[in-house]
Amino acid sequence: MGKNILILNGSPRKKGNTALLCDAFTAGAESVGHVLTRFDLQNMDIHGCLGCMKGGKDKASPCVQKDDMEKIYPAYVQADIVVLASPLYYWCFSGQLKTAFDRLFAVAETDPAYANPRKDCVLIMAAEGDTEENWKPVLDYYAALVGFMGWHDLGRVLAGGVLQAGAVAGRPVLDDARHLGASL
Questions:
Q1: Which pLDDT belongs to residue 97?
Q2: E strands, 64-112, where?
Q3: By CB atoms within 10 Å of each CB, which of 73, 137, 162, 176 scores lowest?
């Protein structure tokens, strides 16, 4: 039976490298029967977390802020796998992805112990650089995040050397993304 997969695409480019990687991953995952929901965060009205600690009172609408996160919360709760997709910005996720991810804390607030829902996850990233030094800070952050959340990493697709929008087209890393999606 297929899994529910949520893609949080933090790229600001509508047809950029991260989007193309997400498309390839989606094609692979759908080919084996998974159901995907994708949010292109750049096109959404999502405000930063207020740190108010007042969320969690309503499982259907866990945050006190009422913006486009209301569309993401149900998909997140139902997801078996969460795909974090982003270009590499200053050795971390884009602001769009970080902002949305921070707001997922409202779901943890629905649990008396602030437990985050357990998920499997995938990382998809595009970057200008393609060296171990380039990837190390974001991979360290991702590993710490996954560990803290209690999630299980199912794989990563890292596309380096792709600064210009669309530069990933025709590269083997698109096949890697497709294969990862199909392998889940």
A1: 98
A2: 81-87
A3: 137
